[in-house]
Structure formats: structure tokens, C-alpha cells
Write a structure and sequence with these properties.
This protein is mainly alpha-helical and 271 residues long. 73% of the residues lie in helices and 4% in strands. The chain contains 14 helices and two strands. A two-stranded antiparallel sheet has the order 1-2. The radius of gyration is 20 Å and the shape is globular. 32% of the residues are buried.
């Protein structure tokens, strides 16, 4: 209660954004065989960006930090709501369990794309932290434990974490609608792919898919929530045992290709 009174401005601004976003409502337009759906969450995120100290200055840097600490609480309520859709769909989830578990291997795709690009752009050991995963909270903790956050690897993972926090939800919401509109993948497959270990990104993707396919919205939400939970459980071990060693190896190889020599083994020297 005291925290709510202390941060009254944050709650007031959030309420105004929600009212405006809900007043605008969902907007959809056809593209090929499907349609693109823009949800109120997307409008609220974009409007929220312009409230910060860089633009309208309605929210200070401290307000932004305080708001970030409240995200986890609100997402807990949201995940509890999604949890109510899991129970009625337990038989379907059990039938798709192998796919739900194996989809975690898809997170390794970040390093196959990220490492070459990072090295090409001139990053050194920052590449390890930035490209080994999607850099959500468990990955930040992992890099902090293995390398420390006050290191090049720590700066890399924090840079991607911040970018994902700011742009990830917008990107996932749009990517889900574009991919669904193309019609290559089944909506339930896209729902499983939405669970990458980030509740906010999963929510944006699942929300867009539910709006596009309301007849199976409960199944989409159940698979997205289950997939996100499994990614949170096994994602750290996947990163520790597979992603980090592979990223280190790929970094060495691509560094040699670009600079003609292998990098120093000391992160301190390169940092």
C-alpha cells in the first residue's frame, strides 16, 4: 500500500496509457492470406517511450527505475491468469511435451546469427554475453556468475537485456502477426515458439495470435504459458552447457577470420 502511494505518478500515468490504448482498440489489416493485428499493448509501449526524460519528461529516470521494479509483480498476476488456461488443456500439452522441450534448442539460433554479426561490428568479448542467448534475467544472472557483470561479457549481456526490455515486446508482437499472416506455421506452433523465457514478450506474441485466431485462443495461451515456463526452467542449463561453450568457440573462429589472429585469452586485456 505504501509503495503504491509512493509511486502514485507511475500508476496514474499507466492508467492514462491503458485508457488511451484501450480506447484506440485493436487494429487489423489484411496482408496476403492473413492479417496483421496491432494490440493496445503496442500502443501503450510506444506512448510510454515518449513519456521519458528524453522526450516529454513526464517521467523521470527514477520513475522509470521504479516502474521497472513493478513489472515482475504485474507479470505474476498475468501468468496466474494464463495458468487458468493450462489446466483444461493438460491433455494437449502432454501430447506436445516433446516439442515443448525440444523447442528450447531453437534458442541456440541466437548465437549462430549474433556471433558473426557482433564480431563484424567490432565487438570483442562483449560478443560472448550479447550473443549466447536472448539475454533475459536468468541469462544475466548466469553471465554475472561466470564472468561478472563488470566485464566485457557483462556489458554485452546487459546491452542486449536493455534492448530487449525496450524493443522486445514490440518486436515479438509484430513478428507473431507477420509470421502468422504468411501462413507457413500452424498457430499452435507459433504459440509454442512464443515461450522463450520472457513473460512480456510471450504475452505480446500470444495476445496477437489470440486476436488473429480467437477460436483457439485458449489453446494458444495454454501452450505459450507452458512453453515459457519450460524455457525458464531448462534455459539456464541449455545456456551453461551448450550455448556458452559454442559461443566461445564461434567467437574464436570468427575473430580469427576477421583479424587474422586468435583473440587474447584474457578478457581484461581485451576489455
Amino acid at each position: 500500500m505504501l509503495a503504491a502511494i509512493k509511486n502514485w505518478k507511475i500508476h496514474f500515468l499507466a492508467l492514462i496509457l491503458v485508457i488511451i490504448a484501450e480506447w484506440i482498440g485493436a487494429f487489423s489489416f489484411a496482408i496476403g492470406p492473413g492479417k496483421i493485428v496491432l494490440l493496445p499493448m503496442l500502443y501503450a509501449l510506444i506512448m510510454g517511450i515518449f513519456l521519458g526524460p528524453k522526450f516529454l519528461k513526464l517521467a523521470s529516470h527514477k520513475d522509470m527505475v521504479d516502474a521497472g521494479s513493478l513489472v515482475g509483480v504485474t507479470l505474476m498476476l498475468l501468468m496466474a491468469k494464463y495458468g487458468t488456461t493450462v489446466g483444461p488443456n493438460i491433455p494437449m500439452i502432454l501430447r506436445t511435451s516433446p516439442a515443448l522441450i525440444l523447442q528450447e534448442l531453437g534458442n541456440l539460433g541466437t548465437l549462430f546469427v549474433g556471433v558473426p554479426i557482433a564480431v563484424y561490428l567490432g565487438l570483442r568479448r562483449e560478443t560472448i554475453g550479447a550473443a549466447h542467448s536472448i539475454a533475459r534475467e536468468p541469462n544475466v544472472a548466469l553471465i554475472g556468475d561466470v564472468y561478472g557483470l563488470d566485464t566485457p561479457e557483462g556489458r554485452g549481456v546487459m546491452g542486449v537485456y536493455i534492448c530487449g526490455t525496450v524493443f522486445g515486446t514490440i518486436f515479438f508482437g509484430l513478428m507473431a502477426t507477420f509470421t502468422a499472416a504468411i501462413g507457413i506455421f500452424h498457430p499452435l506452433a507459433l504459440a509454442m515458439a512464443s515461450g522463450i523465457g520472457s513473460a512480456s514478450m510471450m504475452t505480446a506474441s500470444v495476445g496477437a495470435l489470440s486476436a488473429m485466431f480467437p477460436e483457439i485462443a485458449d489453446k494458444i495461451q495454454a501452450l505459450g504459458a507452458a512453453s515459457n515456463m519450460l524455457s525458464g526452467l531448462d534455459g539456464v542449463y541449455m545456456s551453461l552447457w551448450l550455448a556458452l561453450p559454442m559461443t566461445e568457440w564461434m567467437y574464436q573462429k570468427f575473430y580469427k577470420i576477421k583479424y587474422g589472429t586468435y583473440p587474447s585469452t584474457s578478457a581484461v586485456k581485451e576489455g
